[in-house]
Each structure stands twice: as C-alpha cells, then as structure tokens.
Amino acid sequence: MHDADADGRDVVRPVVIDSPKRLLLLIPSASTGEFRWTLPRFPMRPGETSRRAAARHLHRVADLPALRISPLIGRLPRVNAVEGLQYVVVVRTVVESWPTSVGSAVGPEARWWSMAELRSAKALVEPVQLLDFMDGYWDGWLPDGEISLD
To answer: How far is residue 91's CA from residue 56's CA, in Å, rounded to a whole number?
Structure first.
C-alpha cells in the first residue's frame, strides 16, 4: 500500500469483501497517535478508471483470481492533498471465497471485519463514511454509478 499524497493524483480505495458480508481492513502506522482501520490506497494512472485501477493493483499486489467490481463507486476529496480525489470501490472474487493469503498480500496487519464487529468494538475507520457506504451497498439502497461521500 502506498499513497503519493504530495502529487495530487487520484487514488482508488478497494473495499475487499467476502460472502459472509465481511470487509478486509488494515491498520496503518498511526501518524496521529490514533489507530484507524482503513482501506488500501493505490494511485491511479492518468485517464484510468477507478474500477480498472482497483483490478490492476489487486491483481499485481495480491495475485488474485478473477474479480467482480461493483458498479457503485464512492467519491470523496483526498486527505492531506491539495488536489485529487479518492474513489471507494467494492471488490469481490468471482469464486466463493478469497485465497487465505489475501489479507497479508493486501497489507500488514490486515483483518476481516463484519459490520457488527466494527460497531460493537467501536473501531475507528477511515474514511469515516465507510460504514454507511457499506450498509447502503449491502442493503441495496445506493444507486449504481458514482456517488459523492463528502
């Protein structure tokens, strides 16, 4: 995982999910002294779609099997960047479950969480809109296409 915050490029933030409605989050080093569970963050190439960037990075980083990427895309401003956007895309495998190595391939300290576990643990997540976004995805009340999360 990396983020070129200074260059202003757009980034893609894949939400890796599995069939029991869990999502894979990782915990980066805490620069603020407060740990937040977060999504991987990958820079996009100029002109590249967020869905294509997510597939490219996940294939390259984790050597994943065929992927299904939801048509629902969340868009919000970059954090700690003068310009650029971040796109949240939902990704799942075409097969029933992910390889067991996907967590360590996506990032150190990765962990599968259900929404109930995140809420009961009062876990801090970033972006803060992630839980509402995923509730909307799983409940089917968000439209396909790009939506603003800010």
So the answer is: 12
- What's residue 119's pLDDT? 92
Quote the pTM value.
0.84
Q: Which residue has the tokens 């933030």?
A: 13
Please answer whether residues 13 and 40 qualify as being in contact, where contact means their C-beta atoms are separated by less than 8 angstroms: yes
User: CA 27, 32, 38: angle at the middle one, nearest 5?
Assistant: 25
Q: What is the DSSP string of 124-150?
A: -EESTTHHHHHHHHHHT-SPSEEEE--
CA separation for the pair 5, 79 (Å, rounded): 8
CA neighbours closer than 13 Å in the CB half-sphere of residue 58: 31
- DSSP reduced 3-state for 92: strand
Q: What tokens were used for 131?
A: 């839980």
Of 24-28, 38-42, 59-63, 77-81, the range with the highest mean pLDDT is 38-42
Domains annotated on the chain, with CATH: 5-148 (3.90.79.10)
More confident residue, 29 or 84: 84
Distances (CA, A) of 68 to 54, 55, 73: 11, 9, 13
